[in-house]
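Notes, Module 5: Reading structure tokens.

Key idea: the token line is not a picture. It is a compressed description, and you learn to read it the same way you learned to read a sequence, by spotting repeated patterns. We will look at two proteins. The first is printed below with its tokens.
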Amino acid sequence: MTPLNLICFPGAPNLPIFAADELGIFKKYDIEIDLTTTPSSIFQIENLMAGEFQIAGTAFDNIVAYQEGQGAVEIAAKPDLFAFMGATQIELSLVVAPEIESFDDLKGKSLALDALATGFAFILYRMLENAGLSLDDCPMIPVGATPDRWASVQSGEHAGTLTIEPFTAMARAQGFHVLESSLATVEHYQGGVFATRRSWASNNEAALMGYISGYLDGLRWVLNPDNGEQAKEILLRNMPAINPKAVNNVMAKLLSSKTGLTPNGALLPAGIDTVLQLRSHYAQPAKVLGDPDRYVDLSYLEASRQS
């Protein structure tokens, strides 16, 4: 078995990994997965570059940010990160405190982000801009991954944050509400991807392709309606914070063609274009970005499909 240390953001989109691990699918490809959920994108990228982890499940924007020198922190080594497979389109929901009824109610109130200039921050900036607010109207506070951000809104420390499932369903169940969905903000968005370093991939091709093959088998299993009940059980077992009464809604979002897992591990060209356009508009130092090949290499995915 080849051990692989994998670091992902917590959330329902990890279900194909949970399934492939529990069902012994990764073992078929001589891969043994050790999955860690990251507290923040900064921790994730720093430790991916340091070799503590070989593969990351992350936002596509994070890969672009650090490759372009626009990340939240400076990386000592020159980044050689690339996305090798898509994961999810993802729906980001602006979850706000119960007393917040409109964007105007957010003025002067702080919002929690993972990091201020990477990940999904630019979706939130666009939401505010579309509502006629400036970024100065709402203090942006870097808090970390979704569980910590949601906890900070739940406690009243911050007025809102962006969430994915199952955290959106958890928030709704507790009386918080969604002010806007990213589906109303941008038409297409490449959310989650799997990424690694080019230097590691070139020296560990068999391990990388084994991971891809195992993930794709797990993904196909999850997307098969015949496995629906067992898939729910696996999700609840791996994410016990999900209320069993909400699991059907969580699964519906996860399996949706607009908000969920990307069949065959595909990356979405229109969604990638949106990420690059948002980063060109908001990121500093300012750059006009337009070449996806700088951040993507699908050759390993294509080879795995053919093997």
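Here is the second protein, with the sequence above and the tokens below, as before.
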Amino acid sequence: MGSPTAAELLDRCSFPAAGTAVTCAVSGGADSLALLVLAVESGCRVTAVHVDHGLRPGSSTEADVVAAASIRFGATFRSQIVVVDRGANLEARARAARFAVLPADVLTGHTADDQAETVLVNLLRGSGIDGLAGMRRDRHPLLGLRRSETAALCAALDLDVVSDPMNDDHRFQRVRIRHELLPLLESIAGRDVVPILARQADHLRGVAELLSELADGVDPTDARTLHEASPAIAAVALRSWIQRETGSSHPTDSASIDRVMAVVANRVRAAEVNGGYRVARTAQRLRIEPPANDGTGPGSRSHPIATPEQ
């Protein structure tokens, strides 16, 4: 069987309508280059953005790879430079820096393989249903494709592909999931588990969206309302509120939600959640307190209370 063509792969992609202006995050790897090619093939007006983190020698030349591909396929090109210091949580901090300079509706080249890894990462984090539902298709149009297919497309088009050594660095949890856990699961199951995990994410996404609609009418700052709501709906309302107010890139884990529900039930006065933030209670109202900068404990200044998104 020959290499797939862009037209053949598009049937399993979820790009917006032809003529739509889209921004694609393009690192120069096979997945993101395939995203660029397929976005153009879909008829979208494409701007490719390369973000240089400066984390390895010669990283600035990778923008040239993306620029050349953009010219070849008729996309607009833009380069961004961010500064990420080495240290703990490097992968997460690099991701945060990258998305800080990209538009909120940027498209990324994540595939079904990435979706399966994301489900497992979130499972190990103790995420709730939002985390186990994985990534949404609206910003990840290649979730119907496999990593092997994006690589084959780039090879067929004779594209220069950037290789990121971080993708093989076993100090990172996602890399160990990719190279150790997934092969073990496939050995135990006797089959390819990526489609199974990706389908489970799709099923759970539908449930998560339904619960989110039901939770829209719940005030996450009202302890009485939360106490009277279904536990599943209360958890969704709290998770959305906490993630939005703390600016976390990950859904709040289930253990944190359980701690906050103890505050709701008035068993404790406050509970720590993402990144040192606390949810505290005064009378019937909950508020989020930011971490203190002086090391003396949570700050007394509360974040403004946000209303549920419509």
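Summary for the second protein:
- Residues 294-310 have pLDDT under 50 and may be disordered.
- The first helix runs from residue 6 to 10.
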